[in-house]
Design a protein that fits this description.
Elements (H helix, E strand, L loop, with lengths): L10 H4 L2 H30 L5 H5 L9 H24 L6 H20 L6 H26 L32
Helix pairs in contact: 2-4, 2-5, 4-6, 5-6
């Protein structure tokens, strides 16, 4: 019987499928909750009636009406909110692209099923491309910032910056110091 190579340390523990699906569901819910709240607010301020059409249909995002441009701005601002969710839920820079593309693919499916047609608006496609670019760039930056923060290994009782206590650096060429 041939020997199987043991799995890489942490391979299954790092990304279990149920956790990934939970993260995707939370990101998608956060995407629609934040976007819906912004669109609800702007529609109430503009004196228009709020409907699911504004959130779920690609036909509302048009370049010839003020409502279409406002919806586009709301979706771009929603991308900024989702960057925070990416930082909190995903927290790994190499996974940001996968989660962002999955989020937008599911959004494409939802809007296509709701409108019963693939999006035909160039503004909608451009908005999705800008949203993906914004979310990936800021999401990777934020996750890398979090990954690269210094790790405190001590109890923090020392007076030095690294927690190792107080110490003094002595040059190698000074008198009385053996080299």
């Amino acid at each position: 019987m041939p020997r199987r190579r043991p799995p890489r340390a942490g391979a299954l523990a790092d990304l279990p499928p149920l956790q990934i699906m939970r993260q995707i569901a939370l990101l998608q819910a956060g995407w629609y909750a934040a976007g819906g709240a912004m669109i609800l607010f702007t529609s109430l301020v503009a004196g228009r009636t709020f409907s699911a059409e504004l959130v779920l249909s690609w036909r509302s995002v048009r370049g010839d009406t003020t409502v279409g441009w406002t919806l586009g701005l709301c979706w771009l601002l929603d991308s900024l909110v989702v960057v925070i969710l990416l930082l909190l839920l995903v927290a790994r820079s190499k996974l940001v692209l996968d989660f962002v593309l999955t989020l937008h693919l599911l959004h494409l499916l939802v809007t296509s099923l709701y409108a019963r047609a693939l999006p035909a608006s160039w503004l909608w496609w451009g908005l999705q491309a800008c949203s993906v670019g914004l979310m990936v760039a800021l999401g990777v930056w934020a996750c890398r910032w979090r990954e690269l923060r210094p790790v405190s290994l001590g109890r923090g009782k020392g007076r030095g910056r690294d927690g190792a206590g107080e110490y003094e650096m002595v040059g190698a060429g000074e008198e009385g110091v053996g080299v």
